[in-house]
Amino acid sequence: xxxxxxxxxxxxxxxxxxxxxxxxxxxxxxxxxxxxxxxxxxxxxxxxxxxxxxxxxxxxxxxxxxxxxxxxxxxxxxxxxxxxxxxxxxxxxxxxxxxxxxxxxxxxxxxxxxxxxxxxxxxxxxxxxxxxxxxxxxxxxxxxxxxxxxxxxxxxxxxxxxxxxxxxxxxxxxxxxxxxxxxxxxxxxxxxxxxxxxxxxxxxxxxxxxxxxxxxxxxxxxxxxxxxxxxxxxxxxxxxxxxxxxxxxxxxxxxxxxxxxxxxxx
Length: 266
Fold this sequence. Notes:
This protein is an all-alpha fold. The chain is built from ten helices and no strands. The chain has one domain (2-264). Helix 2 (34-57) crosses helix 3 and helix 6 packs antiparallel against helix 7. The radius of gyration is 20 Å and the shape is globular.
């Protein structure tokens, strides 16, 4: 039966990704787990540093918006995406020996790395925000569900993007440079430094074509509520993520079919 064959294939790939995930976890944790701890603390340090910088500069255009919550919402999203891009670029080339195993695919290698990064950045975000609230530095988000949903969409986008930059860096000589440029561009396209409402109305529609700017606006709606005006489309983010996931899977399939690629292994 085709359905049973499909289930068997899913079970195999589930076990493969699980094994690769445990391998990645062991690589990061080692004996003392310091590297995994740093992987979680790294985005915290980066976000807190930018929060302090933004607070001292007091560069928020709308003075009614809490500076710390504004900085956390923007910089956490920007860092989560850039973390995925920068850490998954070399993952396929580094995992070439694993591809000689019958059931291991390029998609599995990228997903194992990406899932670990999703876990670390998510843990970092959901530790940092409650800590800032408990310390009285930041107010409790108005709509926690909206914040959590926007973060889920951000992580889906980041994971889908990793399925592109991993094969891109492995297939083409210029792929690594292109991936680095894409990572840098996300520093300015995620809304870390601005909100859509700060721009003239004629620029609102073009800006809404940036999917992670929509997600950032969505998170700030959950953070601030009626304090500020936000612009976003949840459906647009979802459809864009679906499209990005499809493109990523096509890239992974192309990478798997590239026979000369395997010649780079031992």
